[in-house]
Amino acid sequence: MTGGRDPGETAAAPVRSAEHAALAAPPAAERPAPSALVVGADGRARCAWAGSDPEYMRYHDEEWGTPLHSDQKVFEKISLEGFQAGLSWITILRRRPAFRSAFSRFDIDAVAAFTEADVERLVTDASIIRHRGKITAVISNARITQNLIAEQGDGALDRLLWASAPDVPAPRPHSVADFVATTPESAELSKTLRTLGFRFVGPTTMYALMQSAGVVDDHVEGCFRASSGQFGPTETASGA
């Protein structure tokens, strides 16, 4: 599941006005509470956001909430979460192979060496999200990450992310009402990264990162990914 738009980060598409949405919907008291779970054709109960899209279901089953490690993998996920701001995650997920091709598989040193010519190449690449601000942010963030690793050694970005893990895990969500968009930990992670100069790393985007990278486990109660408990500390996502 992904977070919404961060303050100061502009959505790529217009949305209906709140008044329009209210007029089109029945009164709250007459609407059934949305379920936090969905049962797929395979009989498995999943977090409802996974829906029935095969790629979304695969991502939910294999990646989301599984501990993610390595500077490169964390850098890629930060970059993709930044591109997601204002969009749906499935839009990014379907384009992930194109993003990897366009950004040298998110090799930190390679992206840090991108030039203005690369920026112009990317803003005309219809296979990715052609948002100049987000593109230049990825390049700038790569250079900051490169410096961070030079100063603190391999694993510096990985350690920075995992330092945001809450001391006491929050109760597992049981319903849609239990989901939050930000936490004190995601706000602190955002502040730390912004102090270093990172861009498109607002608290909402960072909480989405923490969820997807397994820093927090927000699989809802009853989801088959939650039924076996938390993942072990050495289990990592393939990021396939």
Automatic annotation (TrEMBL):
Signal peptide: none
InterPro entries membership: Adenine_glyco (IPR005019), DNA-3mA_glycosylase (IPR052891), DNA_glycosylase (IPR011257)
Residue numbers spanned by region Disordered: 1-34
This protein's UniProt keywords: Metal-binding, Zinc
GO MF: DNA-3-methyladenine glycosylase activity; metal ion binding
GO biological process: base-excision repair
Biased composition (Low complexity): 20-34
Any Pfam family matching the protein: Adenine_glyco
Annotated positions binding Zn(2+): 47, 60, 219, 223
PANTHER family linked to this entry: DNA-3-METHYLADENINE GLYCOSYLASE 1, DNA-3-METHYLADENINE GLYCOSYLASE I
Name of the protein: 3-methyladenine DNA glycosylase
